[in-house]
Predict the 3D structure of the following.
Amino acid sequence: MRARTALIAAIVVIVVVAAAAFMLAGRGGGGATTATTSPTQTSPAASPGGGQGGKEITLNVGLLVDTSGPTSGVGRPYAMGAEAAFKYFNEKGVYTSDGVRVKLNYIKRDYGYNPTRAQQYYKEFRDQYHVVAIVGWGTADTEQLSSQTAKDKILYISASYSAKLVKQPYNFFPAPDYSTQACAAVTWMAGKKPGATLVLLYDHTVAYSKSPIPAIKAIAEKLGLKVYDVNLPLKASDADAENAIQQAAQYKPDFIWCGNTISSCSRAAKAMAKYGLDAVMVADVWGFDERFPKLTGVPEKIAGKAAGVSPWLWPEGRENQPGYRELYEAAKMLDAKVDLHFMQGFMNVWLLVKAIERTDSKTLMEKKGEALKNALESSCNGDPIKLGDITPEMRYCPGNHLPFKSSYIVVWDGKDFKFEGPITPEGVDCVKVTIEAEK
């Protein structure tokens, strides 16, 4: 009896072990678990068929955002777009050029638009998480970190399009720089009214607001426009905006450039309507979006008098176009609203994905951020980069990361937004003017 019991127990053990072995062998890549790895290792993928025998690389990426500070009005949708992109591309699958799957593990930090805090988080990203790339935000902090990212060889894709970043080896963005965008706006103004008077409204103490001013003045002089400066705080109240518009009115402007974010620019447009200032305001890419007319509170009074710069056609109504389609699919994952700034966050992560797709796994593991930088720069003389129909063909060359130069002017006509362009400024190197102004 004892012998029979022992025999049955042995048979059960053999069956269990055989079943376990069969299950393990059935997993793609031959691995039993999925481990989070460092950027220099590979692990078995969780799902079968993922490239080279199911191998998977996990890359740590920093996500630096402002969701609580003075630019959070545009920073929140940007952050949401970036997070949606990480989720979308992780689920869709990101693969190196030799077919190894890459998982993107992002570490999000809200720095409240405080450059000192941004530097602290940068050190955390680098030293604790060993990130190979950062998807970042503001101008002052991105400019301050640019030399350090180059030293550390960390790819940095920012929401700041400062011209000073165009020459930095590890800084990228899928847009013309602020100065080139602003020069397109001035070109548009000069075409509408030769010899016009232009007042520049911007915060005279904020790096982002000041960034394109030298280029604006240079191209305005070339095109024969008269230019005047008026200070408008980035955190302007209604009273601040009204004071700035009253100052601007003294110059009898035909056009006003607003170089702040949407909160203060919309307040300024509201003040223009209140005082009956007969001028057209053109705001920068962070100062004008789908919400602008409603934010002014007087959408009918600013018809034909409010406009903004955008390097891309906005997403509304383009759900079925390549690029925009992926954008809307990602938004559904987080039940998020798609708008211009959500799109900007999504695009920055997508540019990182494009870099990964142009890199083989061995080079990526060995050179990390440097491999990603070289991958984007391969577009200089090789195949250009496109984010669906959102961007034109983009080329990043060593020493010149200006991917294209054209921008649209988006005009509110009282019922809808009308896109004019694209416009490419000519006759002035707007990047060069901006950089030399700081010397």
Q: What stands out?
A: The chain has two domains: 43-175+316-377, 178-310+407-437. The first helix runs from residue 2 to 26.
